[in-house]
Specification:
globular; alpha/beta; single chain; 263 residues; 12 strands; twelve-stranded parallel beta sheet
Length: 263
């Protein structure tokens, strides 16, 4: 696959330039924070630098977005009309719709994306997990339309075929269907069922949700005693702790609970 010369030229110039334009907004040095940005970021060039243990939600159609030197963060970007870049970061979970997505020099990051082009992986990137877009809420498609991101069906598979640019070794992997999950958003986002993900991923997600609903109905009809309810609660809690430990999610969950308690 080839990459347009103009795209490469734009990228190189952006890396060489340190100038901040009047159209640029920055989010810097956040730690253990949960933040939501909206109209103040519309059509802006957004830079997120040096954030740690944060949950950042951008409910707007931005122009470009650069995420750099971030650690243990969950970041959601509704739409980027140009390029979304993740660079020099570790353990970042990024959910984004953009005309182009690229990631480089990052470790143990997960990118769930909808993109009009194939994503680009560059530099020393290790253990990068790529997955389909996992966000759905009422305003989202409006932001994607505003950003002029093509929603033709063939784009649903672009995330799975990255272009490798000057990488010594291919360290990326693709998210299995059984691990695909919808990103949970703050309550202010009104839920919507429509996700820009391949049918097989949506079917797997729907099957899990159906199984969960059937289990909850079965428990409800069982009319358990108070002691049985407590035993069931302890068993589920124990299995859940084992799961989050195996998935290395316990730190982020405990951090989110602490942030919610402190707010």
């Amino acid at each position: 696959m080839c990459i347009r010369d103009s795209t490469i030229a734009e990228w190189i110039l952006s890396l060489l330039s340190n100038k901040k334009s009047i159209n640029t907004v920055e989010v810097t040095n956040l730690c253990k924070a949960v933040t939501v940005y909206e109209d103040e970021f519309k059509e802006k060039d957004v830079r997120i630098f040096n954030c740690e243990d944060c949950y950042i939600y951008i409910n707007a159609a931005v122009s470009h977005i650069l995420i750099s030197n971030c650690t243990n963060c969950t970041i959601m970007v509704a739409a980027a009309s140009n390029v979304c870049t993740l660079d020099k970061s570790e353990c970042v979970k990024l959910s984004v719709a953009a005309n182009m997505v690229r990631a480089g020099n990052s470790i143990e990051c997960r990118l769930n994306m909808y993109t009009a082009t194939h994503p680009i992986l560059y530099g020393d990137s290790r253990y990068v997990l790529l997955g389909p877009h996992n966000v759905a809420y009422d305003e989202l498609m409006g932001h994607i339309k505003h950003s002029r991101i093509s929603t033709k069906p063939s784009n649903l598979e672009n995330w799975a075929s990255p272009l490798l640019l000057k990488t010594e070794k291919d360290w990326h992997s693709l998210q299995p269907e059984k691990e695909f999950a919808k990103l949970e958003l703050p309550m202010k986002f009104k839920d919507n069922a429509h996700m820009l993900a391949p049918a097989k991923y949506l079917e797997a997600l729907n099957a899990r949700n159906k199984a969960l609903n059937e289990l909850m109905e079965m428990i409800k009809k069982a009319k358990l005693s108070a002691e049985q309810q407590e035993n069931l609660h302890n068993a589920v809690q124990g299995y859940f702790r084992d799961w989050v430990s195996n998935m290395r999610e316990i730190k982020s969950i405990e951090g989110l609970v602490k942030m919610m308690d402190d707010s």
